[in-house]
Amino acid sequence: MVIAAVALPIVITLAVMAFAWPAGRISPRDVPVGIVGTGPASQHAVEGLTRAKPGAFDFHLYADQQAARSAIRNRDVYGALAISGHSITVLKATAASPSVAQLLTDVGQHLADKTTQQIAEQAARQKAAGAHAPAKAHKQAAAQRGAAQQKAAQQGAARQGGAGADSSVKILVKAVDVVPVAAEDPRGVVFSSTVFPLTICGILIGAFVAMARGLARPRHRVLTLLVACAVAALGVYLVAQGFLGALPHNHVATWGILSLDLLSVGATAAGVIRLLGPAGLGLSAAVMVFVGNAFSGATSAPEMLPKGVDHIGQWLPPGAGASLLRDTTYFDGNSAAGHLAVLALWSVCGLTAVMCGHWVTGKGRGTKTGATASKELLPAVPGSGEALSVPRHAHAHAHARRHDGDG
């Protein structure tokens, strides 16, 4: 009664907060962004963004757009801004994060609008200053004018120059998607929808392996884990890519990453259940689903989550698995070593707990079974040379009947 009235509402409230709080605090925090060139325009842009959004971006300088594109493909930055006197080029990678790509596009447009406004204000000040020039300068200019035909030609040239000045005030913005997401999944929704169920599926596999009575030996449990995760990952890949087209590159490697993601969650759940019993299932679900999935950053980016939450999410299998899947599918495995190490560590720890859990809990092979413990050896029958194993309760019944006969 107390559990239903107090504990369960608290657990549900914490679960909702674990998902809602990071989603409600999404904002750029030290997002690595490249700046092309070191000219005055680039410097003014960096200073303006730093003042407008302090701590939002971690700027990296690159000599040209080719170097910035290479950095994007190597996962050093999420995108880059190439700023010149008349245009701004936004280099982005929707495959890395559609949210960050849209953010960079908005930043580029904001810089263009602000620069256009500054140029227009400067032109207005110059025009006002020219209108208040000394009258003497006007007289000298009038004296130098030639014939009426020459005057008309000069006025026409002045009108053309004014039109050119007005057109040059507008700063153009060009967005280039260096590493685009799959055409069938332009907003990355299918990708994130594929990642989240992997955690629940891994826990289900681990719970079955840990609680199945038919898997008596630890090595049978480990083998079942490996096979189940590989087959389940193949099914996930066939749906995500074969049916929905959301994982278009590096097919075999992507299948391997899906298998490792499932194994890291499933092995951990199975190992915790073997050590703690049924309570391990609840603990695994709480850590992997309500913390791992919520803090993974799969729908945005780890750098868009609150400080501290991003690191927690990347040290758990759901977050590391989502990042590793992106790196493998779209970026040829660049910047994948750290995430791969996290998944491997969780998998090894989980499999070790599955193999050695019966030693820790005292459920080793040397424990007598119920059938053996309920029997005792009676003296050997004359001439047989072998002792008989008779159930203890049968011996007690025979003893009781003998006493009844004596009475």
Automatic annotation (TrEMBL):
Q: How does it sit in the membrane?
A: Multi-pass membrane protein
Q: InterPro entries attached here? A: ABC2_TM
Pfam name, any one: ABC2_membrane_3
Q: Where is the composition biased (Low complexity)?
A: 118-158
- UniProt key word Metal-binding: no
Gene Ontology molecular function terms on file: ABC-type transporter activity
Per UniProt, residues of the ABC-2 type transporter transmembrane domain are 3-301
Indicate where this protein resides in the cell: Membrane
Carries keyword Transmembrane helix? yes
* Annotated segments matching region Disordered: 118-162, 384-407
In this chain, composition skew of type Basic residues spans 392-407
- Kindly state which keywords UniProt assigns to this record, in alphabetical order: Membrane, Transmembrane, Transmembrane helix
> Which residue ranges run through the membrane?
189-210, 222-240, 252-273, 280-298, 336-360
GO cellular component terms listed in the entry, alphabetical order: membrane
Where's it mainly located? membrane
Q: What is this protein called?
A: ABC transporter permease
Q: Which organism is it from?
A: Streptomyces actinomycinicus
